[in-house]
Design a protein that fits this description.
Layout (H helix, E strand, L loop, with lengths): L1 H57 L7 H19 L7 E12 L4 E13 L10 E13 L1 E8 L2 H5 L3 H12 L8 E7 L3 E8 L5 H7 L9 H15 L5 E8 L5 E7 L5 E4 L12 E4 L37 E8 L10 E5 L71 H20 L7 E7 L10 H8 L19 E5 L5 H15 L2
Parallel strand pairs: 4-5, 4-7, 7-13, 13-14
Antiparallel strand pairs: 1-2, 2-3, 5-6, 8-11, 9-10, 11-12
Helix pairs in contact: 1-2, 4-5, 4-9, 6-7, 7-8
């Protein structure tokens, strides 16, 4: 009997122990389940909130005024949030979203999205709680941009049918930026440059109209266009903003802008196909320039003499020509031909957006004047050591084989072969791009877009464009560990149908680093 009672008491103890344990375990398990569910709700709510903030920051470019942009950003934030977290999603209700747009720091805007929902509870209802309020915040910032577009409008763009696609791609690109906040300007260039649209906060829709009117023709004066873009960024002078140059080209640089000294002595150089120097493949003993000074005198005669009176080495002692012809010179064949024509000297800057009939400067008596610009080597002595903007002509491409070896101009770079002009042009462009990237005060980033055949070294030099941008794939990429230098991006478009994609890629990269 005692043994029976003992077993009965043991069973009763176990029942009480299990019952007591259940009172502790069930709430604990219920709390764990509810907590896991709340964690999942919060994670999803946080992802939706962050997406809304990022979408709002991206959409700050939409609208003509700041108030329109703020309204667009708020609407985009709510739309993205609702798409990622619909009403009653995950058994929630009472959804609230608040969007705030403010400015913090120099030319930086912050979008803050605060959201909350009531998340249902399950096991914890036994303790009287029906729901738990879940709150999260997400922020995204956008730094405003100073951007100079530098677009190649050379004749090869027209010949390949790429001019219109480039214009369309550039117009779509501009639409990604914020009127009234970002500042955008446009330089177009052939053999000369044109300051087509000075930097402005109010660029919509005016810049779109300017882009639509571009006319493509001429050479490829890369260095001067980059130099002018640099001057524009320096004039804005805003180190706190994101300073950017977007450079597009479809070919090799083949032009240089400089203060060219006039030829005052006879020497031996390649002909230019006229005036007795009939072949561009042979050298001739070429006499000094035919340019006239202010009194109308030439190197070989006074103004009132009809025939030659003075001879080498004692030319007209009264001749006092202009010291230099300031303008641009270009070479045929993308600046890669060993012989052939060189052209110039043209005005440094085009006088209108659609100017493409680039002819020689109007200098009295010069053979290159007006329509005779292909006779430039008749009047120009040599290529100076720096271009018009102070950029060295030496560096990237060797010039050691392209100098006069004797005479008064010995050691100076010759002006009478297209390949020389191409190498000089590439060197000056490379040098100005390097100086832009190494300006630690403005920290300007260069994005380069190349269009053409990458297998044709006479068409497009991709390594050169990687150098211009300091792209990480460049053979001489500088990561800033030795010398401070901005890192940019090179984007290649294999044909004109890919230009919109290339420009969109650059826009995406710029807007990515504004946040």
């Amino acid at each position: 009997m005692d043994k029976f009672n003992k077993k009965k008491n043991q069973k009763g103890f176990v029942l009480m122990l299990v019952t007591a344990t259940m009172f502790m375990v069930v709430p604990t398990v219920g709390l764990a389940i509810d907590a896991s569910f709340l964690y999942a709700v919060k994670a999803r709510l946080s992802a939706a909130t962050d997406a809304a903030a990022l979408a709002a920051a991206r959409s700050l470019a939409k609208g003509q005024t700041l108030s329109e942009q703020a309204a667009e950003a708020e609407a985009r934030a709510r739309a993205f949030f609702d798409a990622n977290f619909p009403d009653y999603y995950m058994l929630t209700d009472n959804k609230e979203v608040d969007v705030t747009i403010s400015q913090s720091g120099y030319r930086t805007r912050i979008v803050q999205v605060d959201s909350s929902v009531n998340a249902s509870l399950f096991f914890m209802r036994l303790l009287g709680d029906q729901y738990k309020n879940v709150r999260v915040s997400g922020t995204a910032s956008r730094r405003d941009v100073n951007l100079m577009m530098v677009l190649d409008r050379s004749g090869s763009m027209d010949n390949s049918g790429s001019c219109e696609p480039m214009k369309a791609a550039a117009r779509q690109f501009v639409d990604q930026f914020a009127n009234g906040r970002d500042q955008i300007g446009l330089i177009t260039f052939g053999m000369t440059y044109y300051n087509a649209f000075p930097p402005s906060y109010d660029f919509k829709p005016a810049l779109d109209n300017v882009l639509a009117a571009i006319d493509c023709s001429g050479g490829t004066g890369t260095a001067q266009a980059l130099s002018i873009a640099r001057q524009q960024i320096e004039a804005i002078d805003e180190p706190g903003a994101l300073n950017v140059i977007v450079f597009f080209t479809d070919g090799l640089p083949n032009g240089i802008t400089a203060r060219f000294p006039l030829k005052k002595r006879s020497d031996t150089r390649y002909g230019y196909g006229d005036d007795g120097y009939n072949s561009t493949y042979y050298t001739y003993n070429m006499e000094p320039s035919t340019c006239r000074d202010a009194q109308g005198d030439r190197y070989d005669r006074r103004y009132y003499h009809s025939s030659r009176r003075y001879y080498a080495p004692n030319w007209n002692p009264y001749w006092n020509p202009p010291a230099t012809a300031d303008g641009a010179m270009a070479g045929t064949g993308n600046g890669t031909a060993s012989t052939g024509y060189t052209f110039g000297v043209t005005a440094r800057e085009a006088s209108s957006l659609t100017e493409h009939n680039e002819t020689g400067l109007s200098m009295s008596g010069c053979r290159f004047s007006g329509s005779g610009w292909w006779r430039v080597r008749r009047d120009i002595a040599y290529i100076p050591d720096t271009d018009y903007y102070g950029n060295s002509i030496y560096g990237y491409e060797s010039l050691s084989s392209y100098k006069f070896t004797s005479g008064q101009y010995a050691g100076k770079v010759r002006p009478d072969r297209p390949r020389i002009i191409g190498r000089v042009s590439k060197n000056t462009a490379d040098n100005v791009a390097r100086d832009i990237r190494r300006d630690t005060r403005l920290s300007t980033v260069i994005y380069a877009i190349g269009l053409g055949d990458p297998t044709d070294p006479n068409s497009l030099d991709q390594d050169f464009l990687r150098r211009v941008a300091n792209d990480p794939t460049s053979p001489v990429y500088n990561d800033g560990s030795m010398i401070d230098e901005t890192t940019g991006l090179y984007v290649f478009a294999p044909d004109k149908t890919q230009l919109s994609i290339a420009f969109a890629r650059v826009a995406s990269e710029i807007l990515r680093i504004t946040r």
